[in-house]
User: What shape does this take?
Amino acid sequence: MCWAVGEQEAGLDYLVDALLRHRVRIGEDTRAEIAVVAEGWGVREAVTRRLVECPGDGLPAELELVEGADTVVGVGDPALDGFLLIPWIRSTGSGRLLVRAHVEEPWGDLSLIPEYYGVLASGQGPVLRLFESFSAREALEELRRLP
Assistant: This one.
């Protein structure tokens, strides 16, 4: 069991390694959910690189992990001025998009932790709802809840 500090992160790492090693097919919804858990534990970057390599099950899914999309969307919403919006998870049924809103660090990288999560009506906006930086799970639930 992974209960002590740091063990949850190691558990996620172990899970994704095992999925890859055994070539376990996973659904796209599961892939997106694992990415959200990894985000909550601060290991999204390390885990997601390998998570996207896991074979898919080919079944229809409600969600699509679009991690690694090079596109930075701009939506013209004053609440998000000055932030770089990184596409993260798309609702396949509605086309709505969950984005991470980061600041650009002085050295050019994105901030490690997003300032906000936003649910957009599409890749171009508008913003339907914003969530604080600790609310990735709630943002995913909202993406699913919206028609």
